[in-house]
Design brief:
Elements: H1 3-24, H2 31-55, H3 58-82, H4 89-110
Helix pairs in contact: 1-2, 1-4, 2-3, 3-4
Length: about 110
């Protein structure tokens, strides 16, 4: 049931890792990549919500809460992108770490 969810989050993570690399290298971040990363993140979050409502489970609930926290950070980062301001590195790290912890929590819950 959560296979598509995991696949979507992997794609989002690849985009996020690329975005983080570009930020750390002080390179220009393409708006298209930021949008694709965000869309896959939102799709993954929606799939996780749907999976939680049908399957439940404490581990899935924990992953959902952690991903929601990461999503809030992502929306804040996107607001910086829209204003053409440099992304704050501490927030980039916090967003990435939260998403990674959510992903590992999801994996441990599913497998």
């Amino acid at each position: 049931m959560f296979t598509y969810n995991i696949a979507v989050f992997i794609i989002a993570a690849l985009g996020g890792a690329t975005l983080a690399y570009l930020r750390f290298a002080n390179k220009n971040i393409p708006m298209a990549l930021a949008l694709v990363h965000g869309v896959f993140g939102v799709i993954g979050l929606v799939l996780l919500i749907l999976g939680f409502t049908s399957a439940g489970g404490r581990g899935i609930a924990a992953a959902l809460v952690i991903f929601l926290i990461a999503a809030i950070g992502g929306f804040i980062l996107f607001s910086f992108q829209l204003r053409s301001r440099p992304l704050p590195i501490p927030l980039v790290l916090t967003h990435g770490i939260a998403a990674l912890v959510g992903f590992v929590t999801l994996l441990l819950s599913v497998f």
